[in-house]
């Protein structure tokens, strides 16, 4: 860190600063979606609203994200099965997208003129959402700190206008800014009379959930739950008056259950593709029903 | 005559697309200028992370004038038709000209089309190029329908030192257009105005953009040299990473980072992969090729001590966390005995219908055993052992994280199996890609061949064949590797029995083995064409006999070269003359027996001479000798034709002479199916 960046900014201030920065740019500051998801993209404020008829949709929110296979029982300094993403959606993508993004880095105490920021090709694709876009992973001194994507398709449907998605991995960003090498050493809050570390909040969580994800989750029950969520989703869609929003919740559930089954090692290579296609069909159905609801 | 300069400035263009897109821009412009009748001279292209641009010398200011001819009615047509034609063009009747054509006299209108100026025409040309640009992948942005590789920010068109302005927009977003570009994205993100190519290079350089890709690369290499000298080490040559890095910087600043000594116990390949694949760093070594605890990387920020220090610290930290992962895998993978993991391959499916990776390993073992015995390898044991264990490393943490280290990790992890076994495991993926080297170790080639033939036959059995340009399971690549290992590894095995044996291991009976063989032969023909072996020569030998690929290949090369020599030419002449004569007779449904009786006393001298010569030639393993022996028959055969009439009035004599020729033809066909030769 350079001398100008002496003041360490804590985790919660990173969130607060990002929120206030994007609020100042005219974003609606939303709260996390209350379902288990693998990334901020799954929040309906991104998926469905990227497609929806509003010509303007600017939001930002924090989304807890769960990736059961990334759990390491709290032993790995870089990997956890539960972490936070900060997500910004700007639709249509503004003319000064890159400048706005760089401004947000400054807002959390990163002096971009004292580092080497790079936009490195990384075309984003979510097979389960039937979504893809072009963009970059953003590097700061060789570390990936954000994903920057111009969505082109969601749920198999062309986006118009084109939304810009900015995804910040908050823990990584915090580790960079606080100049530490272990995720559990992140200072969540730090002031003169109180310091709470990431490990104080999440270490036990990582241990228990890693054990659950890898060793304890009941495979048969998960298969059943997958079936139930899938059927519920289909029933809600295959109706004279479909309910795409509740159906989408069921789609999210099925996706998380699939991730758990995957972590349990219950899915073979060949079965994997089949599951992904099933979830993609559900996501497509939800997106199509959602769009259709605006036609009438 | 003046210069035309064009720049498209955008958000970051993927590194791998910069050079190809620069080529497309050049080709597109040249084509458009030609079609629009502008003359032009040489060009110079520029490309980098944020722009592709081009300067074309001596572009004509005006299109060439042309005369456009419109044909009207016949000269003797009635007035109504002639007036109608003139009226439709908005001209008077006396402006029409009479012209003679092969079909009679017609009235024509000759329109002298004056060429328009470049200033007028270039906007249309540019917009057309912009809208139809052949990007590998392109996107829309904002609320518009324009497509570019990433959002396009500005377009600059200069002609004769002046900017040509026109309007481009992406719905409500205007794409700027004028006599300017932008400096370095971070340190000089401002408009830079310029009048021509010269100023463009100079002013961008003053604003930290090295816009000439050749100079930029040279600059990086010069920095590498300096760094190497100063630190007394050598950068390990890595063209791929260098290409990529060139496209990631506008202003290269090469820096050196240090690696903690504690990571230096990791295998060289692991260190290099971590640095290269994820971070695009360059590894370094000393004069004795020992990898050193440093790495070199190229920053995009102009050098400044405090900033360089930040950037180095940051990159060292990232590498440290990556190496920590690698070290964790290196240690945990080695805590188990390598061979004990074999059983775990049962849990991993190879592909639906083709069993588990364990099943596959057992098959590779059996096929390797089969090949070894076919080609008389004395010590089969290490080959079988390596074949059985060669896929085990797929289960290790390191290969899970870095798939490109497959094989290599197996080599390290199997060290307790003995050096011969671990060497075989390490290299069994060779050859990599279409131009990667084939091993010189026969054992490696046997396992590689077994692995690939199992893959190819397996996917044929479950019917997952390539179609069109799609080859999702890499069957063409497998076939090519099989061919190269057979030829370059000089493995003399019967291809039919290899396919037969392999398909038996997969245990399905109903498979068309000929189809698999044809697939391999087709790839082989493609490969031969790439090596400039002529079609007719290929067909001459490949369809005829492709049981032992390496043998056939050897002959192909010999025949291809031989036919270009004087001797080869004589062979062709001989073949053509002999086969033509026989062909004419055979066309009349006559069957010509090959002479098989002993020489008779009534034979004339010429017949005796030629028969002696024919009987003297051999069928031998020395193919070149076979060719030259047969070619040497040309003179005596042509003498025979000159001195004797084949078409003798006595049918007995005529048939005898034809039979002699049939015998000669049979001998000639020993060298290949000459009927496929051009001119036959």
List descriptors.
heterodimer, A: 296 residues, BirA Bifunctional Protein, domain 2, Methane Monooxygenase Hydroxylase, Chain G, domain 1, nine-stranded mixed sheet, two-stranded antiparallel sheet, 8 helices, 41% helix, 23% strand, B: 680 residues, alpha+beta, seven-stranded mixed sheet, four-stranded antiparallel sheet, 14% strand
Folded structure, characterized:
The complex is a heterodimer of chains A (296) and B (680). With 296 residues, chain A is of the alpha+beta class. Chain A folds into two domains: 207 residues, Bira Bifunctional Protein, Domain 2 (BirA Bifunctional Protein, domain 2), CATH 3.30.930.10; 76 residues, Methane Monooxygenase Hydroxylase, Chain G, domain 1 (Up-down Bundle). Chain A is built from eight helices and eleven strands. The N terminus of chain A is likely disordered. The mean pLDDT of chain B is 92. Chain B is flat and about 100 Å long. Chain B folds into five domains: 151 residues; 48 residues, no CATH class; 122 residues, no CATH class; 193 residues, Hypothetical protein af1432, CATH 1.10.3210; 111 residues. In chain B, helix 16 crosses helix 17. Chain B starts with a strand and ends in an 11-residue tail after the last helix. With 680 residues, chain B is of the alpha+beta class. At the A-B interface, strand 4, strand 6 and strand 7 of A face helix 8 of B.
